[in-house]
Specification:
GO biological process, one term: cytochrome complex assembly
Oligomer: single chain
Structural class: alpha/beta
InterPro entries: AhpC/TSA, Thioredoxin-like_sf, Thioredoxin_CS, Thioredoxin_domain, Thioredoxin_ResA/DsbE_sf
Main location: other
Domain Thioredoxin: 1-122
Order of helices and strands: HEHEHEHEEH
Largest sheet: 5 strands, mixed
Strand content: 15-25%
Number of strands: 5
Protein name: TlpA family protein disulfide reductase
């Protein structure tokens, strides 16, 4: 069990992805770099997987060097956390402020980094 409230940083990315999702896996190196650079400044990430095979999910976490907290109910598109956020396609990212309010979503690459840096500077 992971509590979102307990996992919040100054800024938190809730990242919906899956091992089988090509665009998700292509974006992972960017997210890893952002986390490496900004975690010490208050960035947290929670990865929510829409996988259904635990071994493939864990293998992708290790292979892509995703060192933050990960959760999954291994229910594919029936993932209850994804339903709560209204996720209908992945990758999907939700950027939360320190109080847990969604302040941006579905940013990638340089736009994701810029938004995180802007929020951390506040």
């Amino acid at each position: 069990m992971v509590s979102l409230k307990e996992s919040l940083g100054k800024v938190t990315i809730v990242d919906f992805w899956a091992s089988w999702c090509g665009p998700c896996r292509q974006e992972n190196p960017n997210v890893v770099a952002i986390y490496k650079d900004l975690h010490s400044k208050g960035l947290n990430i929670i990865g929510v997987s829409l996988d259904k095979d635990a071994s493939k999910w864990k293998e992708a976490i290790a292979k892509d060097n995703l060192t933050w907290t990960h959760v999954s109910n291994l229910k594919f598109w029936e993932e209850p956390i994804a339903a709560q956020y209204g996720v209908e396609a992945i990758p999907a990212t939700f950027i939360l402020d320190a109080s847990g309010k969604v302040v941006a979503k579905d940013l990638r690459g340089a736009a994701l980094r810029a938004k995180i840096e802007e929020l951390l500077a506040k």
